[in-house]
Amino acid sequence: MISTSVKLKYVKLGYHYLISNAMYLFFIPLIRALAHLSVEDFGQLFHGLELGLVSGTLVSTSLTVCLTTLYFSWRPRKVYLLNFSFTEETFGFQKKILERSGYGQKTYAPKGLLENPPKSTMGLAREEVEMVMFGAIDELLAKTDIGILVVNCSLFNPTPSLSAMVVNRYKLRGNILSYSLGGMGCSAGIISIDLAKRLLQVQPNTYALVVSTEALSLNWYGGNNRSMLITNCLFRMGGAAVLLTNRSSERRRSKYQLSHTIRTHKGADDNSYKCVMLEDDAEGEIGVTLSKDLLNVAGDAIKTNITMLGPLVLPISEQILFLANLVSRKIFKMKIKQYVPDFKLAFEHICIHAGGRAVLEEIEKNLSLTKWLVEPSKMTLYRFGNTSSSSLWYELAYSEAKGRVRKGDRVWQIAFGSGFKCNSAVWCALRTIDPAKEKNPWMDEIEQFPVKVPEISPINM
Predict the structure, then answer these.
(1) Distance between CA 361 and CA 375 in Å, rounded?
(2) Which of these is catalytic: 349, 351, 422, 440?
(3) What is the band of 2 on the pLDDT scale with cuts at 50, 70, 90?
(4) What's the CA gap between 301 and 265, in Å, rounded?
(5) Which pLDDT tens digit goes with each residue over 336-345?
(6) What is the residue-wise DSSP string for 173-193?
(7) Of these four, 123, 283, 386, 403, which has the most CB atoms within 10 Å of its CB?
(8) pLDDT average, residue stretch 389-400
(9) 208 CB contacts (<8 Å, ≥6 apart)?
(10) Catalytic site residue 422?
(11) Among 153, 186, 233, 422, which one carries the catalytic annotation?
């Protein structure tokens, strides 16, 4: 049985390489034929077309210049990532959730929520976001002239805005394009990257700063509704700042190039729209309600998103298998299992939003991912908890700290959150990342990971 499965593995691998390189195999005879042509042969060709050598050269040169000009004027500007950095019954129910969450003992929470009873004020919330955002930006900004600023924070939207807070702190220029995105949930980090990418297409030679964070201080739920108490247990402090540019001169010192961003919004469906919602409970306490349909809604959004992503990233061999399976099931009504494309052939690293243990395990199972591929997500959940939109950057930082990122590696970031939305970003590593030169939250303790996460971690309260 093992021998048969090994043989099938190599048969599929051979098929994948054959299909993926079919175009090059097709051109080999043409290249060999052209290699045997001499200058006289090309002269005869021009003569046959009633063109002299000089005229033929001019025509060829003009055509080349025109095509080159069209290519450079129509192609989208490349976006590079220079760097990124960081910064009783009711009681028993929360204890039970925490024990099964897959979290470790070193996650972070605001100091106001650690008091008894928890304190929740605008002042404490401002202190929290300033500490997280400025800590991340200080590591990154140096003397860079920022032209675009995008800040996302779902639940804390003060006046002046968070983007204004950053402009004021760092005395950024007066004509900066600044945006604050609120209420967009855990997938807002990718939305911010996508917005910055679109702005960089029309703002030449520009730097864009993207800041992703979440504030907990004003969003502690003090009531007894169980569907609202869950968020008290899940979310933790965290934040990341990402520096992007479209300057081709910065390619050499950039870490990654942005290849694709794919956004999926299921808000037209009522169940999707209402599955994560900030609202009042029966006693007037404000909190975030998590619907029982959350896992099903998330699964549907993820499926739609990766269906859109597949044709852009999967090798043609996988696309043919998927299409053949689809035609067999839908047209010929064959009762066969749906074929799930092998995304391991498309990416060397996968960062799945660390939203919860159950979601990570479900994605791992359904996409047949290896333990190694989901390790960054699971270890981020264990060490830092669900830091909302910034979790993807903790996961990529884990892979960098482990020395796993090599030049040419493809990275897939996928996040999902309220709305309901699922978004993906695909990056290509422009250089091998040397962990010894990195500054990120993992560096002082990376040798301790991975750890075995128990199913239940007892908590003494």
Answers:
(1) 11
(2) 349
(3) very low
(4) 8
(5) 988 889 999 9
(6) -TT-EEEEE-S-GGGHHHHHH
(7) 386
(8) 97
(9) 146, 147, 148, 149, 150, 196, 199, 200, 243, 244, 245
(10) no
(11) 186
**What tens digit of pLDDT does each residue of 346-368 get?**
999 999 999 999 999 999 999 99
Residue 186 known to be catalytic: yes
Q: Provide the 10 A C-beta neighbour count for residue 28.
A: 9
User: How many whole angstroms separate alpha carbon 302 and alpha carbon 162?
Assistant: 30
Give dist(CA 186, CA 120) in Å, integer.
22
Distance CA 176, CA 437 (A): 31
| CA dist., res. 429 & res. 244, Å (int) | 14
Q: Is 36 considered catalytic here?
A: no
State which amino acid sits at residue 68.
Answer: T
349 tagged catalytic: yes
Collapsed DSSP state (helix, strand, coil) of residue 11: helix
**Active-site choice (83, 153, 219, 265):** 265
* Candidates 386, 422, 423, 440; catalytic one: 386
Report pLDDT digits (tens) over 258-295: 999 999 999 999 999 999 999 999 999 999 999 999 99
CA atoms of 80 and 254, how far apart (whole Å): 6
Active-site hit among 153, 219, 275, 353: 353
Q: Are 352 and 374 spatial neighbours (Cβ–Cβ below 8 Å)?
A: yes
| Residue 75 in tokens | 């192609």
Supply the pLDDT for residue 1. Answer: 47
Report the percent of the chain where pLDDT is more than 90: 61
Write the DSSP assignment of 85-115 as a string of letters: EE--HHHHHHHHHHHTTT--S-----GGGGS
Dig out the tokens for 244 from the structure. 């992007």
Are 85 and 397 spatial neighbours (Cβ–Cβ below 8 Å)?
A: no
